[in-house]
Each structure stands twice: as C-alpha cells, then as structure tokens.
Amino acid sequence: MILPIVAYGDSVLKKKAEPITQDYPELEALITNMFETMYGAYGVGLAAPQIGLPIRLFVVDTEPFADDEDLSKEEQEAMKDFKQVFINPEILEETGDEWAFNEGCLSIPDVREDVFRKPTITIKFQDEKFNAHTMTYNGLIARVIQHEYDHIEGVLFTDRLSAFKKRIIKGRLNNISKGNINVDYRMKFPLLKKKR
C-alpha cells in the first residue's frame, strides 16, 4: 500500500526517532509499504518519519543510480544490487574528505541543493529479521544512507545548508508546508487538514 509522504514543516520530521523491537506491530507489512511508497515516488530511500512514524527504520534501494553515466561500471553494478532495510541503525564512523552532491528529498519536493558529506561510513544496524550487521559503505550508497539516517535523527538536508542558501529557499519551503506545490505522489501537508 502506498502511504502519504509527510511534507516539510511537520514536527515528526524534526524528532529524534525511537528504537523498535522485533515485536513492533505489523513490521513486515510496514517495510513492504515503505518500499512501495518509495518506488511510487521514484525515491532511492525512505525513512519512517517521512510516513509519520518516529521510529528508527529506513529503507534504501539505489538501483535508479545504476544508469548514472558519471559512475564507473563497478559503481553502477554496486548501485544495481543494493537494497537494504536498516532498523535501529547507528553510524559508528564517517571518514574521508567531504564532497558535494546535489540532494533532494521526497518530503521536500522540487528543492535540490549541494550537500557536503564524508564519502565513507561504518554503520551498525539490524535487518528486517533483526540480524545484526556492521558494514562499511562508500560513495553514493554511503550518501543515501547518511541522508536517511539524518531523518531518524530529526535532521533534514536543508538543515545542512548555509544560512544564505536557507534564506534563498525559505519561500519554497513555506509553500511546501502549506501544500502550494504540485507533486505526482501522495503527500500529507502539515498546514492542511485534508490529505492529498
């Protein structure tokens, strides 16, 4: 089932999310719905707060990046095969020289800005069966994970922009929170009572 994505301005996007346990109600269905919602909005990642749930869960599937001609064949292959559920994740380390990449967010449609992040991360997490993993990721995969991890920490990519950039996009962000935007996927706007 495709769920509405919570728009910029909703307080759930600014909360630090809570860990969950194996007995979280209907977790399997929730994960399935999150992937379906993400695919329906042409995303590569989706965090639970983006569907209104302040829990430490996000999903990633980087296959759409596999066609990026700027990537090496090896990177394209890595993108094609990377699909993962992250439950109760904790980034242990971020290393390397920060690099800029133009990021967007399903909760902030039609706003894209360069964000600086470190290229390599080590993260521990549980998968959908609650098996524990500690993994190191690089490049675009690391970046997608960092972006989604920010969501469960109550941080949006716009929070990482300079004060000058924030002033430039302030009006667009206000319009998003009021629902004054056309999107081709279901959204829930904080300053509107009705769902779209």
TrEMBL record:
Reaction equation(s) it catalyzes: N-terminal N-formyl-L-methionyl-[peptide] + H2O = N-terminal L-methionyl-[peptide] + formate
A Gene Ontology biological process term: translation
Domain of life: Bacteria
Keyword Hydrolase belongs to the record: yes
Similarity annotation: Belongs to the polypeptide deformylase family.
Function comment: Removes the formyl group from the N-terminal Met of newly synthesized proteins. Requires at least a dipeptide for an efficient rate of reaction. N-terminal L-methionine is a prerequisite for activity but the enzyme has broad specificity at other positions.
Entries under HAMAP family matching the protein: Pep_deformylase (MF_00163)
Annotated NCBIfam families: pept_deformyl, PRK00150.1-3
Name of the protein described by the UniProt record: Peptide deformylase
